[in-house]
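Hey Z.,

So I finally got round to the S-adenosylmethionine thing we talked about over coffee. Here's the setup:
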Amino acid sequence: MKPTHTERKVIIEQHKRFSKSMLWRLQREYFDKEGANAWVNQVPFYITSNPYIAASYAKIVLAFMRDWIKTHPEAKNQPFYIMELGTGSGRFSYYFIKTLLELLEGLQLQDIKFCYIMSDFTKHNIQYWEDHHALKPYIEQGLVDFVLYDMEAERPLHLMRRNVQLSAELLVNPLTVFANYIFDTISHDAFTIHENKLYELLFNLHTDETNMAHNRPVSMEKIGVDYNIHEIKSAYYGDPHLDAILDLYKKELRSTSFLIPIGSIHAIKFLRKLCNDKLFILSTDKGYTAIPHFDNLGHPTISFHGSFSMMVNFHAISEYFKNSGGDAFLQTPRKGIRTIAFASGFKINDMPEMRMAIVDGVERLSPSDYFTLHSRVRDHFNTYDLDTLVSHLEFANWDPHIYLKVSSRINSLLAEADPKTLELMIKNMPRLAANYYYMPKTECILFEIGMFFHAIKHYERALYYYQQSQSYVGEQFGLFFNMGLCAHYLGKNEEALVHFKHALTLDPESKETQEWITLIESGLKGEKANYVDHQ
Ligand SMILES: C[S@@+](CC[C@H](N)C(=O)[O-])C[C@H]1O[C@@H](n2cnc3c(N)ncnc32)[C@H](O)[C@@H]1O
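And the result:
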């Protein structure tokens, strides 16, 4: 069909340095408005929020703390502060803390103290973590604190639960920082190189008139971008560590465009000051790690997925660290995300346990490899036998996210299951339950575990998990009907009757429920009569 009229284009912004573009403000407004809903089928987050990546980080951080204590024995008297930037859902935080505690206990190192600081710029996310059932025990033990931190602004950081400022006095041991999927989310500058000349890319934003309301664009995805260029002849940043990076690119690159993650570099500078320049960063994101990776690239592309993100120039961040006396460990290239370590105040090679943990958990089977493998397996779940699915669950540390994807396949295979496989599954169900981190609008793993035990006729445990799931699942017919069945098979008919009657209020048309009620009521009458008879 031919369009009846041409939509008018509206210029939103012209000739803007990228880091000053309104896009970053729109990005923050998006996350602030959405809160935890950002992760309901909008912003991808599984890749950086699973038990596997959290375990890799926990092993590296534990090794780091042990190395540090070896050379600074007094460090044991002070907590290690670990701060997560742009924390988002908090699921990574939960798995990290849980694993670190398990490792400390397993190695009998409980005397090493730590405080995990969850930070984000929006208070809506902090509210979500404060109320989260899974985090409650850690909050109550004082293992977790919260900070409202906008990485684009340099303001004092206030630990909300301890009611103190994060300062060099408090940070006696080095500050560990996690930056997952955040360096790609905050401001960048954009440049292009042509015939050995360096240009700044200035952004022009436009959109259709229909995408405007109250003088601002409604959907970021409908914003179009084009560029002007402006040659840079003098020191652009006026900061020798940063200008040295631009000089290097001008010398090494022939024809390309690249980004400098300036918002992230400013935040790093701020954090370095805050911790007396003793800083250890682990970051997982999509990005470039070596100069040849970004030769001959077109102008930067913006990926929209609810919010938007850019490829991170990890190489520039590592140059910045190296130029200013720090150190970096850049993972060898992967097609997907990469995990990178940055350090200041010490050299990575002087920390042998940590270095080996990085080699093992980043350079070898990394979070990126885990996700690649998982994605391939995920595409073919329905063709796998039970043993393969169970091995995959073991590989994924009994991750509820994965179990929910394969639960119907698993349930269909249980009748023919090998007893040893079943035994392994039964043993690991508490592990799966302990990994439950509630997210809005997702299925409840506790209910699925109930279904598993129900299917293999372990009614006591099925009933237990169904009951545990009640506060998440809410008033659902299936839950009460299943609890009725389990209670009945356990000979608890009075309880079964309560559940079936409740189920009937949720689905008054259910003939099956009515039949169960009639059956049990007639049986109960019989039992009561017998009871009276025997008196
Ligand atoms: C793409 S999400 C990543 C969340 C989480 N780290 C993960 O890996 O799933 C980006 C997060 O950064 C937060 N954020 C955005 N801009 C920020 C800023 N300027 N300072 C601090 N956090 C910011 C958002 O609220 C959101 O939680």
